[in-house]
UniProtKB/TrEMBL annotation:
Residues 1-18 form the signal peptide. It comes from Magallana gigas. It comes from the Eukaryota. This is FAS1 domain-containing protein. The keyword Transport does not apply. Pfam families: Fasciclin. GO terms for molecular function: cell adhesion molecule binding. Residues 20-152, 154-285 form the FAS1 domain. InterPro entries: Adhesion/Biosynth-related (IPR050904), FAS1_dom_sf (IPR036378), FAS1_domain (IPR000782). Keywords: Signal. One of its GO terms (cellular component) is extracellular matrix. One of its GO terms (biological process) is cell adhesion. PROSITE patterns: FAS1 (PS50213).
Amino acid sequence: MLFFLVTILSLQAFVAHGQVENVFSYLQHNGNFTTLVKLLKESGLAGTLATSATPLTIFAPTDAAFAKLPQSVLDQLSTDPQALADTLKFHVTNGIIISPMIQDGTEFTSLSGKNLTAHRYANQKYVIQGVNIESGDKIVLNGVIHTIDSVLMPSDVSISEYLGTHETNFADLYAALVLEGFENALEFGTYTLFAPRDDAFAQILANLPTIAADDTYFKKVLMYHVVPGVWFSAGLTDGMSLPTLAGTNLTISVQGSGVYVKTAQVIEADVPLSNGCLHVIDDVLAPPK
Ligand SMILES: *[C@@H]1O[C@H](CO)[C@@H](O)[C@H](O)[C@H]1NC(C)=O
Ligand SMILES: *[C@@H]1O[C@H](CO)[C@@H](O)[C@H](O)[C@H]1NC(C)=O
Ligand SMILES: *[C@@H]1O[C@H](CO)[C@@H](O)[C@H](O)[C@H]1NC(C)=O
């Protein structure tokens, strides 16, 4: 059934454009993918996308998506052919994936061998590795193109490992989690962590000894930042209430492009991790006593 549908849609694409587009030629002619096209050529993957006889699906980052990458990452991609190939292959899967197949928690194995994880939320928004799909389901002769607004990054490390290896920002949070014996809990299970940076802890430094002296309350403070399940920002809506491990809920508010958790603002959203995701916030959240 699906193959039949795809065949029909491919024929329509053929009729509409009067020429046969393959995955690569579509990207090349579109105009929004000049960086991706250049990198695909450099890596040798262009040929696969042009001539593959079996269908492929690509999650294609736009030029704007590549422009968001730090220069250091772009430099690495241009000097390390293996890293470039792995990164590009992470965006491609064998077979046809169309949006109805992208459900909450669905995994797709990419050509790099690593899995891509999808999430779909009550508001019907869906993401792949936490990244928004701007427009999906463009069907061409040998595959499907989904346009995405960020470059996909693998989620190889757990929440705990991420904090432990980003100590320039999270030394205080990580130390607190280790102190309370929570770092193992954040290795397993699936969670969303709202992670206050060290400068957020610095703001409450005067109150910290009092908070930390009450061990039960301090545990509660930490657990108040952890929500079961994977809540990328696409799924966060204004007024939403999320249950935390502290037993009480956090309220989300969305004002313009700003996302707030209670009074704290999300300053870096959607870090994909092997057991969930993390959003960096600018304040430590205090649960009711
Ligand atoms: C290219 O991107 C712009 C801005 O997002 C969009 O308006 C336009 O439709 C895109 N072009 C194609 C051919 O998809
Ligand atoms: C990757 O996804 C496939 C399903 O597409 C699943 O069978 C496999 O267990 C996943 N691998 C890992 C390492 O999660
Ligand atoms: C906490 O959140 C859950 C899920 O959104 C909701 O069902 C529940 O009513 C909330 N509890 C409170 C006290 O707001």
